[in-house]
Automatic annotation (TrEMBL):
It comes from the Archaea. This is Formate hydrogenlyase subunit 6/NADH:ubiquinone oxidoreductase 23 kD subunit (Chain I). Keywords: 4Fe-4S, Iron, Iron-sulfur, Lyase, Metal-binding, Ubiquinone. Residues 38-67, 69-98 form the 4Fe-4S ferredoxin-type domain. One of its GO terms (molecular function) is metal ion binding.
Length: 123
């Protein structure tokens, strides 16, 4: 047995008793690290529909319909840059750790914003 074969046999034997380097996904769900930029989440109650997030978004993933009280995000256009999160004056946006699941269609999430009175919009 040559030196190369000996080294290979040693590696194979070592690998047999080692923990696998890969995770058994999807049987074992992935654990997200604390700072993972997965998807943008919103606390609807705190949003004042000011539109700053939409203006800051480099990919136009967010749209704000002030009249209809609707906040919309096109998940497939979002590049997880976090600009909207940093710009929101009400701190109602955050980067949640899980990713939007793959889909054959563009996923758009629509949120109804409970903006009850005029005073809240001027806060
Ligand atoms: S910047 Fe914040 S408060 Fe303004 S519309 Fe976006 S999410 Fe709502
Ligand atoms: S994270 Fe970036 S790309 Fe995604 S919605 Fe916010 S500003 Fe737009």
């Amino acid at each position: 047995m040559g030196l190369a074969s000996f080294k290979m046999a040693k590696t194979v034997l070592k690998s047999l008793f080692k923990k696998p380097a890969t995770a058994m996904y999807p049987a074992v769900p992935r654990e997200w690290t604390e700072r993972t930029r997965g998807h943008v989440s919103i606390i609807e109650e705190n949003c004042i529909l000011c539109g700053i997030c939409a203006r800051k978004c480099p990919t136009n993933a967010i749209s704000v319909d002030r009249k209809g009280k609707i906040w919309t995000i096109n998940r497939m256009s979002c590049i997880q840059c976090e600009s909207c999160v940093e710009a929101c004056p009400k701190k109602c946006l955050a980067m949640a750790p899980s990713y939007t699941p793959p889909n054959v269609e563009k996923v758009t999430d629509v949120f109804e914003i409970p903006l009850p009175d005029k005073e809240k919009t001027e806060a």
